[in-house]
Amino acid sequence: MTTATLTLKSPRVRGRHLSGLLTWRGLTGLALVGAVALAGLLAPLLTDTDPNAQGPLALAGPSADHPFGTDDLGRDLYSRVLHGIGTDLTLILTAVPIGALLGCSAALLAATSRWADLAVQRAFDLLLAFPGLILGLAVTAVLGPGRWPVVIVIALAEIPGFGRQLRAGILVQREREYALAARVGGSSPARVLLRHVLPNAVDPLVVQTAVALSLGVFIEGAMSFLGLGVRPPEPTLGSILSQSVAYLTTDPAFAAAPLAATTALVLGFTLIAEALNRGIRR
């Protein structure tokens, strides 16, 4: 029991995934996400232009007054992209924790009995049967476009990923020697699960969080691109990209900035997830 307790409390066991962030993948991912997130966070300081204010110069090229040019309604793309980043990150950072909480709660419920496990697995299968965009169509058909439908769709799409990761970790860890020793020592099943098994089963969730953030960027962008997301004129990266499609041949710069920001976020979160995963395997 003493050995098991020491293992459970070891910072090396709980924090080994963080070592992956010091590799080139982790540092590159952090730099990409950090740069884009900082630009969105500091949008009110980096520009004082109203992102929804229309001007006389439609589809103007980059200039001193409009670093990224203007859109088809004469709105400043620099301001719209920066504020769009902030909107996207707000939605994603709201939805992913909700999906993580619901998925992990379902995994803990599945660990209580065989029948609960079966019911939870079938619920995960049902959610996985509907791709994110199909969920988006279903939710917006009921609620209409807006911020909360985007949050709901992302959260629903994330539930199976978090739930399955935690369930798999619990199944592995509760058969380890320290968990068996705790049961032999008289600990209740709930105490074994929460005190011994759960702390050692959560490492993969750190990787899953980075993957979920990347998926959240994709879902939000796709919903806004199709007109199912945040209502105009509020900017998002997906809605700006959707506007630019009609002008790709005549004004390709229109799509450059939102596409670069979206790519940086997805690539950055993917590199972070890969780095964390390699750190766990060391």
Descriptive notes:
- The protein has 282 residues and is mainly alpha-helical.
- The chain has a domain of 197 residues.
- It is built from 13 helices and no strands.
- Helix 9 packs antiparallel against helix 10 and helix 11 packs antiparallel against helix 13.
- The longest helix has 34 residues.
- The two termini are 26 Å apart.
Short description:
The chain is an all-alpha fold. It has 13 helices and no strands. The longest helix is centred in the N-terminal third of the chain and has 34 residues, at 77-110.
Helix-strand category: mainly alpha
Termini distance? 26 Å
The ordered H/E elements are HHHHHHHHHHHHH
Indicate the percent of residues in helices: over 70%
Radius of gyration computed on alpha carbons: 22 Å
Mean pLDDT: 87
Any low-confidence stretches, pLDDT <50, length ≥5?
1-13
How would you characterize the largest beta sheet? none
Please report the number of helical segments.
Answer: 13
**Beta-strand fraction estimate:** under 5%
What is the overall silhouette?
elongated
Q: How many strand segments?
A: 0
Summarize the helices and strands and which ones pair or pack:
Blueprint: H1 2-9, H2 11-15, H3 24-41, H4 43-46, H5 77-110, H6 114-128, H7 132-143, H8 147-173, H9 177-184, H10 189-201, H11 203-225, H12 237-244, H13 253-281
Helix pairs in contact: 3-5, 3-13, 5-6, 5-8, 5-11, 5-13, 6-8, 7-8, 8-10, 8-11, 9-10, 11-12, 11-13, 12-13
